[in-house]
Amino acid sequence: MERVRSVEVAARVGQRVRVVGWLQSVRRLGAISFLVVRDGAGVVQAVADPARLAALGAAQAESVVAVTGEVCAVPQAPHGVELREVALEVISEAAEPPPVQLGKKLANVPLPALLDHAVVANRFPQRRAIFRIGAAAMRGFRAALDAEGFVEIQSPKLVEAATEGGAHVFAVDYFGRPAYLAQSPQLYKQIMVGVFERVYEVGPVFRAEPHDTARHINQYTSLDVELGFITDHFDVMAQLTRVLRGMLAEVAAACAPELALLGARVPELPEAVPHLHFTEALELLAGPLGEAVRAEPDLSPAGERWLGQWARERFASDWLFVTGYPMRKRPFYTHPDPERPEHSRSFDLLFRGTELVTGGQRLHRHASYLAALEARGMSPAPIAAYLEAFRHGMPPHGGFAIGLERFLLQLLDLPNIRLAVLFPRDLTRLSP
Amino acid sequence: MERVRSVEVAARVGQRVRVVGWLQSVRRLGAISFLVVRDGAGVVQAVADPARLAALGAAQAESVVAVTGEVCAVPQAPHGVELREVALEVISEAAEPPPVQLGKKLANVPLPALLDHAVVANRFPQRRAIFRIGAAAMRGFRAALDAEGFVEIQSPKLVEAATEGGAHVFAVDYFGRPAYLAQSPQLYKQIMVGVFERVYEVGPVFRAEPHDTARHINQYTSLDVELGFITDHFDVMAQLTRVLRGMLAEVAAACAPELALLGARVPELPEAVPHLHFTEALELLAGPLGEAVRAEPDLSPAGERWLGQWARERFASDWLFVTGYPMRKRPFYTHPDPERPEHSRSFDLLFRGTELVTGGQRLHRHASYLAALEARGMSPAPIAAYLEAFRHGMPPHGGFAIGLERFLLQLLDLPNIRLAVLFPRDLTRLSP
Fold this sequence. Notes:
Two copies of one chain form a homodimer.
Chain A: E1 16-29, E2 32-38, E3 43-48, H1 50-53, E4 64-73, E5 81-92, H2 111-116, H3 118-121, H4 125-146, E6 151-152, E7 158-159, E8 171-174, E9 177-181, H5 186-196, E10 198-206, E11 219-228, H6 233-254, H7 256-262, E12 275-277, H8 278-289, H9 301-315, E13 319-323, E14 336-337, E15 340-344, E16 346-351, E17 354-362, H10 366-375, H11 384-391, E18 397-403, H12 404-411
Helix pairs in contact in A: 4-6, 4-7, 8-9
């Protein structure tokens, strides 16, 4: 008999269907048992008496099974149906119980157990929901950019020199020569503006930061965008807003059940996201956080939270751009504000009071790069190839990068970024 | 004045427009000069007399310029138009000529020069065409799989043990512990079949093979697919055929000018790609290549070429599946053919007589893995996490991987795979 997917069963009341998937749980209630079978799409409940249940033999939860049965309308069952008069068949037997019980609430499973046994624990309905939302976000990201003529690129992950400064890179033995894992596609996406004007990349980046926090991982997925022929960073902010709108729209359209399962909702994104200059932000913060903040070169987490609340109250917005961060806290390729050269044409996008995206305009003249490197005491030699692009005509350009896992962390209000990664890599974890 | 993109100029005959882009070439013909300006989309020709040309100053080819002029119909010009009565403005000056002349034929530029100066040489129209076709192929790949309910995943690139056997891995210093760059997402995509049934990944893979050939690179982009609940490898071959159809359709739909520029065309893909068993292939080859081939465990390049020609003549197909390769030449996770256990449920897809894709059914029972590892003298310990998935219920499954650059190499009949990579990594090349 042809297989029916779990989500299609509700449309087959009165028919006999065959569902295949994983035996998520068996609840024995006296004379009958309730089985929950999960496939890639969802779950189906089945009812069996002991004689029929005997076909399972010693098969434990998570065995792969086929359940053939009659579809009956049962309002209190998942999707309002259950299978009765079932015939059970074990396709692939699990001989022992799963290392974590998938019927449990995810929040009740300790994080180390979840991560140690991720190969099975990723089957948790809530885990699956997070990853499906991540996949939808990537689809929305690409669709928004494809529609505007951006070209997808793939940059090298093995590089000769650290992209974003010398620390926190993983060293690789490249046929006996030293190499590093790329910390970002920053330099390559800029170079590629010289080729296609508008490019994006979705790929892994590697940060050897020895931090053990709920917000740090050492490999993450970076959604990188760079575009040429801009006027200033406000063009980049407008582009980011359109991209986020595409991501949120795809999540909302494709993942309603997943959002419901996680108790999350897709936030409103205003037509024009409010923005304020870094110096204005400090003015605002001097009241609640004290005059000393005026001397700070960056916003503190407390400052960001306060501004997030302020944007919520003032503009009814979960989103706030802060522009014009001091040049000294930004990387060498940052474009200064010609009218206030100590401030940059950069921005952070705060979402509910936490930084989600960083971006800005970059330098585009060769001479500006040489001056910027000299001012920072950096040698141009390790990035000679990158600088070659600027010797041969580069337009004003800028871009941004969205960390996919950070996006999920904040969108879904997860307690730990590791929950947004299939198989996280951190200070102590290289497996599974 | 608002910018007009090069490809939109032809629709503006009689109007004055502003085009911005790179000054690709200046040809001086006595009293007038012909300029070619290139933007992300294409090129536009402009005509200027010496007085107007003076605005360029010392700006060399590849300077970023704005050309404002009247659009005139000129049949022999690119897109049938040229700009006259122009005003020129230098936006970003290139002070020296480009390291490779972009007006040249790509084939006339030596490969080392092309690769050493890739940051500029990627601007070559033919190079851009190759990468645009690659981006279209990725779009087609994802669209075909999204439409069938596959979930996109991102797997770790830093791993504790070599995926495909111990040799040819890059070693990484992971916070003082030894780690390796993943040679493929093979084990992770199989694990994820246990979560979503159907998954795909587009990402970099790393092979430390010390080969210096026109077909080898050490980082490439792998388009990986894995699907559960299959009957055998023929389900995987059918899935691959649908995916390739999607890739080719998107390339044909989106890249007609690029294909024309490269003199390539998208091949027909038969509704059902012809297939033959490995043993049948050897039977056929014994005639032309000699009886000794019957003892071979694999097909030689000469054998593949002969079979490609045969498929062309016999089925009018550029494509041919060869199935049932001997188990001893396939990796440990390969599923044997139960009726001929020395042969596998695997396949290679030949395209015009060269292997393009490898795939097959995998083992799915825990006991089968233990037996397969023992038979090969491999320890289960380094892949304990992977094996855990099979202890807890995995369905019959299989998959395949398409190397994006290999696909472009063969589709476009390129002389060297490095031409299909933005910034290739090979035995000697770590930069740009």
